[in-house]
Amino acid sequence: MDKIMEQSPACGGAVDLSATPLLSVEDLHVEFSAAAPIRAVRGAGFTVAAGETVALVGESGSGKSVSALALTRLVAAPGRITAGRVMFDGQDLARLPQAELVRLRGSAISYIFQEPATSLNPVFRAGYQVREALRLHRGRRGAGREMVEELFRLVGLADPRRCLRAYPHELSGGMQQRVMIAMALACRPRLLVADEPTTALDVTVQAQILALLARLQRELGMAVLLITHNLALVADVARRVNVMYAGRVVEAGKTGEVLRHPAHPYTCGLLAAVPRLRGDADELHGIPGSVPHPAHIPPGCSFHPRCPRAGPLCARVDPEPEYFEEGRMVRCHYWK
Questions:
Q1: What's phi and psi for 132, nearest 5 deg?
Q2: Which of 188, 210, 226 is at the close of a domain?
Q3: What is the CATH number for 75?
């Protein structure tokens, strides 16, 4: 907790937040068809400016990864976008023809998925998999062995030629993650979606991956959408943060302001659950209960069954977003 309050974002250079955002997600709804509709995302909205790092934060099951996949319609059937707009560089990706969307994936918008060991194909060499990404978007002329070797050097692989020939199981977790980053950056995307990019890595490797992403972002000028549950990570790298719960953003604002002065009780609970370096360092504060299943969202405020501030109004009326200060938003009846 103390570390979080002392950190300031390191990723991204000067960003003009007054300009039209590179990415703007508006009232996004994603459902999975079943006996009862499973509403995984319920009106989520956020923006990312060119060159900016923005975080989506929340517990597992909050809708972060589904929101990220929905940006380029990667949600697998029976999931589908039922409402909302995903504006990227003036185009609504939710309604873009499939052929145009395929060309955009991996070139203008790239992903680093969770668990590189399961994201990489185990039967193909690492170099071949990166060359395939280049062939898809640049053709054979842009998919040479030398280019892949240069990408591996760019992401800090110590022996690029050996890594080209290696199968995923022959690489460590940190090396696999660097191969995934090389694949994502192969076509110089304008937006990188990093879904838990340091999951399952030890602390030293995590720091190396974060430093690498920060350096590459500065060099390439790309925007980053970071999906994570790690608030210390957010404090280190994100300029703005969106806190998600039960499929929607419940609090948003500049990272330092949200972490120092959280408005929503859920954000307060997440911060209280971070281990402290001083004071009551031996005591952990958890949030009682768990994130509701998307098929059984409670009426009123979805957080009220777990909320220490909840009153009778919270169980009946879903709070509307309230805006205060510059760029701050919160959904709570009693945030004041």
A1: -60, -40
A2: 188
A3: 3.40.50.300
